[in-house]
Amino acid sequence: MSGINYSEKIPNNVNLVNDRTLQRALEHWQPHFLDWWKGMGPSDFQGADVYLRTAISVDAQGWAHYGVTKMPDYRWGIFLADPQAERKIGFGDQMGQPVWQQVPGEYRSTLRRLIVTQGDTEPASVEQQRLLGHTCPSLYDLRNLFQINVEEGRHLWAMVYLLHAYFGRDGREEAEELLARHSGDADKPRILTTFNEPISDWLSLFCFTYFTDRDGKYQLKSLAESAFDPLSRTCRFMLTEEAHHMFVGETGLGRVTKRTLEVMKEIGTDDPAKVRAAGAVDLPTLQKYINFWCSSSLDLFGNEISSNSAANFANGLKGRPDETQYEDHVLRAATFKMATPSGTEDVPMLNALNEVMRESYLKDCEIGLKRWNRQIERAGHAFRLTLPSSRFRRTIGTWAGQPVDPQGKMLSKEEYEKRLYEWIPSASDRAFVHSLMQKVATPGKIAGWVAPPDRGINNLPVEYEYVKLH
Ligand SMILES: [Fe+2]
Ligand SMILES: [Fe+2]
User: Separation of 55 CA from ligand 1 center, angstroms?
Assistant: First the structure.
């Protein structure tokens, strides 16, 4: 296990002290990051005392320290998972050869692009969520939001480290740009569309952390397979932190479902208007939010048929999540039956890897739905939550712009447009959800639209004052 040196300005386990040039470059970027955090991070809570976990080692047993800190004092650092001795490339045309400790010249711009695209999502999500603190349903939830925010900030550090350490001047320029683009900005938006959607209510946050952070998990898993070893090690440690973000989404949506079912029982009806009048999120509205965020996140996997993904795999830059679960790691002979609007096509497997990833992502998404549907079934209701078809509301790939309903059925354009807000939140659905968002900041108290969590953080009680506001 490699410990982390906290006596330095930038906590790290990459021996920064032995590379003065790199250390100076990162220490030069550090105040820019802090300015960004203060300007674009959680608004109005910089002085609050927050119960946060901080990475202190990369050891699977006990990598985190919990304590109270103000967010600007969080120790953002650079932590790579321990190297695996004699690690070999696990897929693609160079399979079996030693992994790379430096960037091969021919892959330099592609690798830089992959790292920048991943890096861009991290601060983007902090920006998307910056106003949410004002409407927190409880101090427990507020703390979880801030935990996610500081860790997304650390994920930015993780990518900026790679840019500075391995990409010279281009990398340093990209690191500055990562702070210059902003979510939803008209002139300099974030790179990916989903990360420009505002997240202005907590139902959206729970959907985002369930669906979009899970896309993050899949991207990190595929980069963790990379032949570029520093990228692999960086992503492996990021996945440890990422798990909590998806936990917030899964338990958040479970708690919303639980509360809705309680309210339905109290008022003796599942009539959505009455459920709303009683201050809970009716299940059809929950379904619409799921449809919105799931379909938006599905676009993040990219084109169904992609020569980039083929090249990235063949060259060893980006594998499939959990590459070892597959038998064929070269894929030169395999094909994939791809459904397109004009029928099924046989596509070389290498060109279908975005779709392969999208399919395994959707399977992972099903797990939460099964759990929430069990709650609904146990409460005696016939309603079931479902995932939208991967063809629904796509803006990228072969299904982009196709009038398809959430079941995957092709409709006429007119019917699709007429019915779209039966499937995703309308302005009035959003206004209703917003009307529920009232700040609850008394220890142990919780908003009426969401059930309390089953347990607190790090064995503390749910009533613990996770955020002390001043
Ligand atoms: Fe992240
Ligand atoms: Fe995340």
Answer: 14
Q: Tell me the whole-structure pTM to 2 decimals.
A: 0.96
CA of 339 to the centre of ligand 2 (A): 31
Query: Ligand 2: distance of its center to the CA of 235 in Å?
Result: 12
Give residue-wise pLDDT tens across range 258-315: 999 999 999 999 999 999 999 999 999 999 999 999 999 999 999 999 999 999 999 9
Which residues neighbour 15 within 8 Å (Cβ) at sequence distance 6 or greater?
A: none
Which residues contact residue 113 at a Cβ distance below 8 angstroms, ignoring those fewer than 6 apart? none
Cα(208) to ligand 2 centroid in Å equals: 9
Asked if the model's pLDDT at residue 1 lies above 50, the reply is: no
Starting from the CA of residue 244, give the closest ligand: 2
- Whole-angstrom Cα Rg for the chain: 23
Model pLDDT for residues 81-93, shown as the tens digit of each residue: 999 999 999 999 9
> How far lies 361's CA from each of 65, 188, 311, 414, in Å?
31, 29, 21, 31
Residue 244 CA to ligand 2 centre (angstroms):
8
Say how many Å lie between the CA of residue 49 and the centre of ligand 2: 22
Q: Kindly identify the ligand whose nearest atom is closest to the C-alpha of 234.
A: 1
Confidence of residue 95 (pLDDT cuts 50, 70, 90): very high
CA of 15 to the centre of ligand 2 (A): 26
**Residue 25 scores a pLDDT above 80:** yes
Asked if 253 and 208 touch (Cβ cutoff 8 Å), the reply is: no
Report the alpha-carbon distance of residue 393 to residue 28 in Å, rounded. Answer: 43
Q: Residues 388, 391, 395, CA angle at the centre, nearest 5°?
A: 110
Instruction: Say if residues 368 and 253 touch (Cβ distance below 8 Å).
Output: yes
CA 403 to centroid of ligand 1, rounded, Å: 32
The Cα 436–Cα 448 span in angstroms is 8
Residue 8: pLDDT band (50, 70, 90) is confident
